[in-house]
From TrEMBL:
Residues 1-81 form the Core-binding (CB) domain. This is Tyrosine recombinase XerC. Residues 300-337 are annotated as: Disordered. The gene is xerC. PANTHER family: PHAGE INTEGRASE-RELATED, TYROSINE RECOMBINASE XERC. Residues 328-337 have a biased composition (Low complexity). Forms a cyclic heterotetrameric complex composed of two molecules of XerC and two molecules of XerD. Pfam families: Phage_int_SAM_1 (PF02899), Phage_integrase (PF00589). Belongs to the 'phage' integrase family. XerC subfamily. It is found in: Cytoplasm. Residues 303-312 have a biased composition (Basic residues). The lineage of its organism: Bacteria, Pseudomonadati, Pseudomonadota, Betaproteobacteria, Burkholderiales. Keywords: Cell cycle, Cell division, Chromosome partition, Cytoplasm, DNA integration, DNA recombination, DNA-binding. It comes from Curvibacter microcysteis. The active site is at residues 144, 179, 251, 254, 277, 286. It comes from the Bacteria.
Length: 337
């Protein structure tokens, strides 16, 4: 049953390879838990699922992680019901513990521009051009790291069949396959386009023979397509060399892209389309980042805000209870999508 379902989500639903891998892990866990409890997969009751969810929470797993596991299990039992193997879904009414809504981390505009404009004259020119281009594309188009590594130099039947994306330099667009197998096109900015052209010149990407031998847009010295892990490492190194206040990872640049576009345009619907979010509620988290930015600007610039802060510091009444410290900045969270 597990193998049949995994084939279903991979072939018929065409879920991303990483999603299929996670489904395999979660369903293997379900099978092991059912075996330990002496139950068949089709005989698991809702009370047992709740017990397993409580055990995961007690072991320190966060609510978001538990929700992802339960979502996988719920989809599996829905499919079993469609096949006539179970009469009801034991996961349908089980919910994960409520997770706090934390804000994603985004760079400030100055820090993001500083990273994008950074040049390392001591690095290999080939590596420097490649790393500069991938930073510009991550920040300039808001791509996920999985979408970035799946890019080819140009469109091809093989790319479409295998779920890869590509760049179109003439149209200044990047075409990617996002979550849920949804394709979208995102504009490539002027600076990102120039960085890509420099990289392709050194890469040899305009030569037909080079494209045939390795169609990947971003590859390593050994000629193989870059992995998400290698991009994490290169970006972390580059951000440290550029002097950014925090180590940068690929999704932070996606958050920065969304936050900065929203701050400039105020067009939430356009940001949703650019990010490829299925639900606009996912995109709305960036309105909270935008409000944080506006609140800081107000506190720093408005005369009445400055006067209020000054009066709080200067007034010290006998027996007064000191004001509680401001809460620390929210830590990073990965929005759905």
């Amino acid at each position: 049953m597990l193998q049949a379902y995994l084939t279903h989500v991979r072939v018929e639903k065409r879920l991303a390879a990483r999603t299929v891998t996670l489904y395999t892990l979660h369903l293997t866990q379900l099978s092991a838990l059912a075996h330990q409890a002496g139950l068949g997969l089709t005989a698991v009751p809702p009370t047992q699922v709740r017990r397993w969810a409580a055990q995961m929470h007690g072991a320190g797993r966060q609510g978001r992680g538990i929700a992802l596991v339960l979502s996988c299990w719920r989809s599996f039992y829905t499919w079993l019901g469609q096949q006539g193997w179970v009469g009801s879904n034991p996961v349908s009414d089980v919910r994960a513990p409520r997770a706090p809504k934390l804000l994603p981390k985004a760079l400030g505009v100055d820090d993001a521009v500083q990273l994008a404009e950074f040049q390392n004259p001591d690095d290999d020119p080939w590596l420097e051009a490649r790393d500069a281009a991938l930073v510009e594309l991550l920040y300039g188009s808001g791509l996920r790291v999985g979408e970035l590594v799946g890019l080819d130099v140009r469109a091809s039947p093989q790319a479409q069949q295998q779920g890869r994306g590509w760049i179109d330099l003439e149209a200044a667009e990047v075409h990617v396959l996002g979550k849920g197998g949804k394709r979208r096109s995102v504009p490539i900015g002027r600076q990102a386009l120039a960085a890509l052209q420099r990289w392709l010149h050194l890469r040899g990407g305009l030569e037909p023979s080079a494209v045939l031998s390795q169609p990947a847009l971003f590859m390593g010295r050994n000629g193989t397509r870059l992995t998400p892990q290698s991009i994490w490492q290169r970006l972390r190194r580059r951000s440290q060399l550029a002097g950014t206040p925090t180590a940068v990872h690929p999704h932070m640049l996606r958050h920065s892209f969304a936050s900065h576009v929203l701050q400039s345009s105020g067009d939430l619907r356009a940001v949703q389309e650019l990010l490829g979010h299925a639900n606009i509620s996912t995109t709305q988290v960036y309105t909270r980042l935008d409000f944080q930015h506006l609140a800081k600007a107000y506190d720093a610039a408005h005369p009445r805000a400055r006067q209020k802060k000054a009066s709080r510091r200067s007034v010290d009444l006998p027996g007064a209870v000191p004001a509680p410290p401001e809460s620390p900045a929210a830590t990073e969270a990965e929005p759905e999508g």
